[in-house]
């Protein structure tokens, strides 16, 4: 009988539940505890181990499980909570969460994905850190406009430090991409599209490694740019985008703002939608979707952008 393991990851402990045996175990979320937990799971030879995304706390847990060649998948916590509500489980504790995660894996059987290699993890960490620094820089510049003479020098010094740190993060990202021939080729290919700059290209490489490997519907859903139907009976609701990777959408949004000015194909597409009476936000979203589909085709066929 196949076994499915659910692990609820907290900062200090790991709650493990095994289905269909309903076996429970608890481990400390430190190096020693994670090794013991991985040994416990390996002895069960489970068909699948399921974890929720927990703000990064799940990453070392996934790594130690993957080192033992166990099938692991990290899912959105919202999916498990909705699943629990559907079963009538309204209470929420770490033990109950671990059971619901295990039952979710047993019932839904989400597809396990291979562990990201070390270079991809490093690239994603650099991209995330640069994004954090940019956000802090924006906040400090906003504070500077209303700062008193007592705090202004400190804010100005921090702004200078943040600017230098952002430059360093950009150089680290560029150096890492240049070190990998495949990434370097993909970056050069993406930048042939008018509207995609170095920052956008790096974000797509690091946060959307599936680009060029999936069909147009799946890549749009992964980025959160696939329209979701909201129909019931005779009612026809407005289609909206939902979920996906927010940082990828942000990169595509910035690329779209540039493309509707400088890319003749996207500019014509955007203007046609506006003339048809579409709202500006709807037209921009449609352009983001179109750009993503074009980039996906470019990477899949290894073909540079051509306006024709």
What does this entry look like structurally?
This protein is of the alpha/beta class. It has three domains: 105 residues, 2-Layer Sandwich (Nucleotidyltransferase, domain 5), CATH 3.30.420; 62 residues; 101 residues, no CATH class. 59% of the residues lie in helices and 10% in strands. The strands form two sheets. It has a five-stranded mixed β-sheet. Helix 1 packs across helix 2, helix 10 crosses helix 12 and helix 11 runs antiparallel to helix 12. The protein is globular and about 60 Å long. The mean pLDDT is 92.
- Let me know the average pLDDT: 92
From the 3D structure, determine the CATH topology of the largest domain. Nucleotidyltransferase, domain 5
Order of helices and strands: EEEHEHEHHHHHHHEEHHH
Number of extended strands: 7
Q: What general form does the structure show? A: globular
Please state the second-level CATH architecture of the largest domain: 2-Layer Sandwich
Are there runs of 5+ residues with pLDDT below 50, and where?
none
| Span between termini | 57 Å
CATH class of the largest domain: Alpha Beta
Largest sheet composition: 5 strands, mixed
Q: Into which percentage range does the β-strand content fall?
A: 5-15%
